[in-house]
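Lab notebook: predicted structure, single chain.

Context: the supervisor wants predicted structures on file for every construct in the current expression panel, including those that have not yet been purified. This is the next one on the list. No modifications to the sequence; it matches the entry in the shared construct table.
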Amino acid sequence: MELSRKIAEDLLSIKAVFFRPDEPFTWASGIKSPVYCDNRLTLTAPEVRNDVENGLAELIKAEYPDVEVLMGTSTAGIAHAAIAGHILGLPMGYVRSGAKDHGRQNQIEGRLEAGQKVVVVEDLISTGGSVIEVVNVLREAGADVLGIVSIFTYGMKKGLDRLREAEIENHSLTNFDVIAEVAAEEGYIAPGDVERLIKFRNNPSDESWIGEKK
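Prediction complete. Output recorded below exactly as produced.
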């Protein structure tokens, strides 16, 4: 089975990705969303976790064969970077959202030498803002950031544009379009809802998909 579909099935089965197009969730930004995503749930589902971590390890080997260090985003990417690093026999660390106010006041935790080739491990990417901040911190520390691997991406235009402008590539195990398709096939949502979901993905500020029925 294609990996992206397998991971989509996994995430849906444990409700790590949960669609509710008729009763949208409200993000912190105020945007109404038909989807709720919490990839932390993969950590408490061993079979799914095994698929995800082996998938991330394979993705890293395939896309970034020269990687020397994995760096997780804080906090959601830390466990995934640690487990994938264990599978690959690679060192790992993580980047805090801000520098500590005590001790050595580190923002980067773990040993990182200038010039080392780094892959950032993230759980999901929407608008891309937080992971770009992590990449910038690593670049300022002298790291050669090869790119990002993530479990899930929305594929939103804003996020894609931001990553392109920052000259960062991302490879995800699965994406919004695949999960929506699998969700319809497996009865999590009505087949006609896929078009509504894609309309949200294309322009989250446009709420015309809410209440639409097919």
